[in-house]
Fold each of these.
Amino acid sequence: MEDEAFTDINGKAISLDCHSHSGFCREFTVSSPKVSVGKVMVYTCCVWLLAYTVFFFTQNTAVLSSAILITLVGMMFHIHFVKVDHESLLVIGSLGIQVSSCYASGRETTTFIEMSKIKDIVINEAIYMHQIIYYLCVLLKDPAEPKAVSSVVPLFQSSKPRLNCLVKVYKSCQEILSKC
Amino acid sequence: MVLKIYFPQCCNRADSGLMVGRWIAGHDSAVVLAVIHYPFIPGQVKRYIQQIQAQSGVELSVLGSWSLPKEGQEGMESFLRDLSTIFPQERWLQINREFGKTGFTCEVLTQDQNGGTTQQEAKKKKKMVEEGDGEAVGDGEEEGEEEKVIFVHYEQKKVMLSQLHPIENGVPDPKADPPSELRQMFRMVANSQPLFFLDKYDDGPLKTTHWQSEGREGSIIVELLKQASAPLCLLISWLLSIWTCFCNIRIFSLYPLRFLSTKLSTCIQLSYRTEHMRTLSSAKPAAGHTQFMRKANILVSLLVDVALGLLLMSWLYRDNHITMLANALVPAADHIAKELDELLQWLMGAPAGLKMNRALDQVLGRFFLYHIHLWISYIHLMSPFIEGILWYGGLSACLGLTFALSLLSDMVALLTFHIYCFYVYGARLYCLKIYSLSSLWRLFRGKKWNVLRQRVDSCSYDLDQLFIGTLLFTILLFLLPTTALYYLVFTLLRLVVVLFQGVLHLSVDFINSFPLFAVGLRIFRSFRLAEGVKFRVLCEEPGTALHLMMEINPLKYGTVVQTYRTPTYSCYPKDSWTALVKKLFVGELIYPWRHKTTKTD
């Protein structure tokens, strides 16, 4: 288990965890920083202050209850659909690659890609708004046409780690992929 | 190469015996389907396997031996090795497990060409000890490359019942790529149903362990429904044949009735439901997963429809609701007529400060006012019958809520017929004006539309042509605001009615096509609709092979709805927004909700 100081493209600290289950089976987990209590409190206070000012002028209690409802629903929506806790990549030689993201509420979405569809794992460059970033991706091929790349599946999309982290994962994956 | 063994979870604690299953062609994998226990007679095992092969069409073979020695039983190493000679296979797997340990160990015996057998072990430590010290790693002669083994545990019941999406059914195209390993594995387990019929209460010569060995699973309700469905299907098909005969009577194929029946949404819905009943009442059982899901979705949507219709009826026929509705209808119609009257009077004056052409204004306004007067007298004529019509119309809800909604949509169309007429008059006038204006504008500039070449060419006109053309152009140009205003007002009214009808049609379409059964299956038996699989590494002991747990990854809800939607007469706007706006500007008649007469997939 290794835990070095990696950051994502915005400079926030993330952690990488490499676990080797066997000679040809490795799991990489990138964890994002958790929801900070300070931010939650700031947002809630802003929304409620706004609601109080509106209530002060209109004297309508529906404004207050709707503000509470909006805050609650927004928070639940955020932790269930938006905030990613950790993303993991499980590489099993000669079986395939499994990509999964786990959200802050515990929900997990998983995709498994079979080895026959995988052409390679590479680090690619992309233009992301005003910067150029590196990202790790899986190149898929159509079994009918082994030479052409049919689609690209980007990995670690929410955590967006920087190049040093990606290189580490890339080297590990290539060891397994080259063996099988 | 890594050898993958798919091992059912139910056999984790099975007694020692023979493993029966299949090798997956093209990939280095084996699927274990059942375990046949000691003691057995080899001849009987071979006969049983042949019998299952004949019944199911899946090639079965003995994969190897499984040993889980109980207390007091000695290891049966030599016995197990002798078994491989009785059932000659290319590769013979020997899987051992000990109580108290979670890991399995696997030895693979390969039959090479000389007839001798070489053995490869998965335990690394033992091999290194055997090498001795100081020897170079040139061990390729006897042992060959060390074979790595992955054990993939799967739940047999779930894999057997689940269907991988996207569905590939029918005869596989020989030119297409062979199905992937996972698909082949799922198909093998699904086709091996006869193997799972033998349970532990059978008094046969063989004892097996698989997911149904504790007793065959079944549901009384499902069996009763299956028995009841045969006579029910006969009854429905008989009723349908009577109905089809009735519909084919000659009198209904006369022109006006035929035209009406394609326009009225109630008739369309009726024909649509007849199609559905015909699908449901076919005598053959569903062939394949898609057919079964379609039938089930149609049945559930029909039942929900009828249930909602009965609910509506129970509300409608209680507490004199119908009388209240009927009594509210005529004053509402009067109110609408009064509002339209006021609107026309406003248009005939100086609407929004615009100055209209007096004469044209009066003509158009009086024309429309007379129409409204006709309509109002028609409504007053019908008023004693309205309650009766509503009462009998409400009875149609017993066929389903969709019928009630279609009937409502048709009634709205009939009652607002005058608005439709106004819209058509206004649109035709405006369209005519716009086309004449554009043609005369070309004349004004000295150009002409060349029909042969489909383009604008210059043309020399005579003086009198130019004179009359310019005169007409001026007249039409100054009359344009009046016509445009009338057109605008009546188009807006027509759009309001069309919107309301569209909402009704969309809800009818939704009830018709929403796959409620598939969504229910996704919620309650999510393993039956599989998008793929997901793997979980089981906690391993050092030195044993890798153990993975394969679970079914259920389909997302959006994909479920998209895959299993019943195809309907599509009721979506047939023009894009830009085309619609362009048509409105030019004055072409718009029919935004177009029913396609044939079903689309």
Note: The radius of gyration of chain B is 39 Å.
Amino acid sequence: MSSIGTGYDLSASTFSPDGRVFQVEYAMKAVENSSTAIGIRCKDGVVFGVEKLVLSKLYEAGSNKRIFNIDRHVGMAVAGLLADARSLSEVAREEASNFRSNYGHDIPLKHLSERVAMYVHAYTLYSAVRPFGCSFILGSYDEDDGPQLYMVDPSGISYGYWGCAIGKAKQAAKTEIEKLQMKEMTCRELVKEVAKIIYIVHDEVKDKTFELELSWVGEVTKGRHELVPKDIKEEAEKYAKESLEEEDDSDEDNM
Amino acid sequence: MERLQLHSQIKGVSTGTTILAVKFNGGVIIGSDSRASMGESYVSSKTINKLIQVHDRIFCCISGSLADAQAVTKMAKFQLSFHSIQMDSPPLVKAAASIMKELCYNNKEELQAGFITAGWDRKKGPQIYTVALGGMMLSQPFAIGGSGSTYIYGYVDAKFKPDMTLEEATQFSKNALALAMGRDNVSGGVVHLVVITEAGAKHVVVPGDKLPKFHNE
């Protein structure tokens, strides 16, 4: 659905004759250039997985994290311009903190995602600023309301999901996610599947090495958003690599 | 004791008062007297209602300066209504109490009013929060407040039981209020009671002649 909006694409305050705001669409293209991030909601929690491409061997391992903690019960995985995403994570943190200060309890995720989406949308109205070039997935777990997952894109829309993917391989990732019966899975089972999906959609030819970032929030973490512990992560990566090899093998048999 | 001292310094109309709230099995009962006084000796109203509804299933009992209490509850009612529409769900009792607390704490120099916020919500069921003069917020299984409350600490400490039935809790409240009104000169009139449960809020007025009588009456 790409077209060049010559003349109508210079500022976010201009519509094109066919009713599009090209600056916002270009912002979404910036997200599509970034590597993939996925979030999946299961029976008792939410799991995030990010394919973090390593551009140089000189980088310290674990730098430039793409999963943030917004409040103790909310996590955020991002794709797109990382600097824009960091600025939005601060906005989300302030919203959550002010809510807790005023109302005495954890911010409900639907409300948080609507508030941050409103903020993102404000930057699509004026020619003096550019839209944010990142999408992000918010996830939380609460004893009473259960697991929640919301995604916000540069146009300022937020939707609730059972599973979603953003970034360059989002189509392939969505196909894999749709194969899962996530409503019946627990977080422990889901962690392995998330790792497997990231390994599947990673393009060995175009992009070389990558680091897998995994985090979760759910009954297993008593409602706190945390990075997946080292041993569980290693087990998940082992499962992912083995599944990939099996699929390679079966391809060879068919030939 | 803080309340007794400050009471004589409240200018204008004060709710020298007795208020209470009690949790029972399935809800809360809140109650108050109905006297408003100016100074120590003039009763400016015999029939005011000190149980202010701030949302469908959340009420605030007011004490201290009547003007301050009305201003705070009016503001809290507005904020709570806005919050509840934004959340698209009934507000938590804790959220209502937090709103009261923020107003009291941030304006503590100007205000002289204390509250008992009580109600029912889907998440934690019946709850009671005391919001004191300076903005302290405290969750309790039952709470008493106002100048008349000093006379009934012994009674409520001795007679309160957790998980009472509605009848037991009603009798407990009526007794406590009657005892306080009998000894505190700035509490009196009728007893207002509101019962809040999942089903809603029901207001009952108990006139003076129907209140429990004790040995000296």
Note: The mean pLDDT of chain A is 92.
